[in-house]
């Protein structure tokens, strides 16, 4: 079964909903792992660890040539077909520029799509093979705590996508969300709403029914659409943890997810630590803490980034109330004295 | 305080009384009556004098119209006709139902049963039989009969918005009637770089005022002509034939609806009564009634206004549209052009040899027509306005320029499901229109080069005809592949650019101004030599040169100006949007031109008078007669110049505006020369679609039909695109790691 899969959400003008990953993807893992093991065993100079991490000039040229050849067909923007079984569109097209800027942009295609693709049409059995990230990324030398794929793998195993017995989730894998031909390490520097749109598009490309204007899903959320525009699905649908990792890959089911406003709308740093953390860090570095706190991009009710401002605001409000009250009191006193004066004059007049 | 408002009331009453006094005073009354009288006079003048003045100004006539076919039936005649039509319809339906039955007698019995089955009768009997019977209508009198019930119609605006409109106004303001529009929204660009009618000064554009080499005339001067032919078969006897633009166009009677070109005024009621509703709406309209008749006001086109045609009014089907539109699609002499088999009970219509587009829409030659798809399935009407799509190369008026008519609206962007190569085929759609593969050839008689200046005697028809010196329906010859983004020029040149090209794409200096195919050149030379037999003054070499390289007619200064204007004015329109490769029927014509109004992209073409041309074979005389038409004279006057001709000329690329020097002086043509248009027109072809497209090899081969280099692909890319075997091996670099070359070697 194929998954709806957005190749490049948020980067084009309109939502692209028809992209579907080809059927051969889900079974790649075995072949690739086998290939990696074999090549490591054979000590292949090309596919050795050093080679794929930072391609040297030779390998870069090979990679470019290979990409050029593959993109002769796969670079056609409308290369796709309709799967006779599902009727869904299966997109085989790669955007040359997206690929170039993606984390895998410098790799030769055959690095992942091993052997046999030098012919057209490609052999059917190749297409049925599965490819998986962890197989390559496990021993990635750049692995840090944040990028630890073994942690990601463990988290993912607990994810609703991995544990669900829904037939639609049967072939779920990394590529269902992360298009390896487009994926960039981070979207640092982009506007928060763009990051949110990009991220949520990944989810919505499968959960497209949520877009239905008549859908009653998430109806409990006040200003549902505003939330969707400002908050990532992940912010509520992953476990809260205190680690430095940007986000957990343990996606929670609807029942398990955060239905607690206070998680975000409080001084608790839930959202700050996740969605806005890159931004905050970057901005704070650039602008200094105070300016950042004043000109921050996202105002979240109940969540101030700076207790000092909260106090300042409280003091200002308190002072305003005090001034108002004082003014009112003064008016009242003045009125009273006027009445007394008038009463006095009236009695005097009566007398006269 | 409570008394405060009182003075104001008094004040107001005072003012009122003063006002009343003023109004009732004798002088004011007089002034008032004068003003009312003036307004009434203006209104009456506009209503009654303006039409008379306008008719006199343009030299056209309008008069109440009568048609012989409109005849009142007696009650018995009506019932007899009703029964006949009902039986025809029931028989057709019953025969279709039982067509699978083997035994003829069983078929006959079942047919009879079915024909008298109430549900069949009510389902297929023409609806208007009952309507007319009840309303007591026994004569079809034209629009007034239709409007008795169809005073208003509900228009669906595609987006679900429904609107009730006056039917007559709806049709009168549609391009089917008006023949032009001043509305913006054209994807047409003037050679001056401005989008046509996007600015404040809007001019009427459309077929009404557009001279072109295919009809050879204006609608103004070529509306309805009677031609005396002398066919061989008749032994020199005169046979009168009908010719003119009005044969297909419902607007206007003695002339096109010129009144609609003005910002004020309206077509007279008599012209509206001449609208031929039935040619589009009747199932049984008799095209044999469509011929030119002459009365004391002039010539006009006859119509079928019979009760038979009126009673069979039903939903529009392909045959309705094709009565006229097969003429410019398959062509007049296309084998399956039904209208061309019904040329008229008298004054038979002349058929035009040489198809304009040569892409027929018929079950025999179009996969959609064969599947029973109706014209209106794609061209979904909004009332009487019918969309042509956004992609306009020509200046033919478009009622709904923002409504799409596309293949993808039904087929999606992944239409191929049947082939092993489906994904690759779908991949082509990013750069290519469906038509590029699925129209393999046009009708063989599609005209590419038409010489109006050297007519040829057609013995069979007994008339002098234009000479088609080159016809072809083959790719590269009859049609060319060009980049197209939906924009076109004022003289019908497709605009676009290669999105990954070298930047050298410039069809107005290349594809549209050269014929260099050796086979085509040989045929053109042969045609020129044949023409020389009749016209000994022809210099064959020079003739072929001008016909196949029309830019050779320009002076070096003009040529330089042309390059500059393309570069400065058209580049933006070329680079706009997403270009794809489309097939375009190419066409050029040699006609007489007013050289006083010449620019780098052409000069004002002068029309021919059909009767003079066909009868005498003297094109100069035909021009003289045509431009003696009062409206052409008006065209060469200040009012027309300011109203539209200056603007027309700017779009035309003549930046000095319109030179109103009437080219006929003392019966002699002045400053008039025969020339080929400076570039070929490119006509979109979208019909005649084949289910099976081209084979890969037809294009992806060094000898393929697609000239990739001309489409501004880089030499490396051209080599790749022409190397199908290399593609199948997907470059030798994949898999074998040593080779780093990006370019696959050419075998």
List the helices and strands and how they pair.
The complex is a heterodimer of chains A (352) and B (747).
Chain A lengths: L27 H15 L6 H5 L3 H18 L5 E3 L6 E3 L4 H6 L22 H4 L5 H5 L11 H10 L1 H4 L10 H4 L14 H13 L19 H7 L2 H5 L23 H4 L5 H4 L3 H11 L1 H6 L12 H45 L1
Antiparallel strand pairs in A: 1-2
Chain B lengths: L5 H19 L1 H33 L16 H23 L6 H12 L2 H7 L2 H9 L7 H7 L2 E5 L5 E5 H6 L2 H4 L1 E2 L6 E2 L15 E2 L18 E5 L9 E5 L25 H4 L4 H5 L10 E4 L2 E4 L5 H5 L6 H8 L41 H4 L4 H4 L29 H4 L10 H6 L6 H5 L8 E12 L4 E9 L7 E6 L3 E2 L28 H17 L5 H9 L7 H20 L4 E20 L2 E4 L4 H7 L2 H9 L2 H6 L2 H15 L11 E2 L2 E2 L2 E5 L4 E4 L11 H4 L15 H7 L2 H5 L19
Parallel strand pairs in B: 4-13, 10-14
Antiparallel strand pairs in B: 1-2, 3-5, 6-7, 8-9, 10-11, 12-14, 14-15, 14-18, 14-19, 16-17
Helix content of chain A: 40-55%
- What portion of the residues of chain A fall into strands of 2 or more residues? under 5%
Enumerate how many helices of chain A there are, as a single number. Answer: 17
Largest interface: A-B, 34 and 33 residues
Class by SSE composition of chain B: alpha+beta
So what's the overall shape of chain A?
A: elongated
- Please summarize the sheet with the most strands of chain A: 2 strands, antiparallel
DSSP, total strands of chain A = 2
Helix content of chain B: 25-40%
Oligomerization status of the protein chains: heterodimer
Note the total helix count of chain B. 28
Order of secondary-structure elements of chain A:
HHHEEHHHHHHHHHHHHHH
The parts of chain B where pLDDT drops under 50 for at least 5 residues are: 1-10, 731-747
Largest sheet of chain B: 7 strands, mixed
C-alpha Rg of chain A (nearest Å)? 30 Å
| Overall pLDDT metric of chain B | 89
Number of E-type strands of chain B? 19
Distance between the termini of chain A: 105 Å
Q: What's the Cα radius of gyration of chain B?
A: 30 Å
Q: Report how far the terminal alpha carbons of chain B are from each other.
A: 108 Å
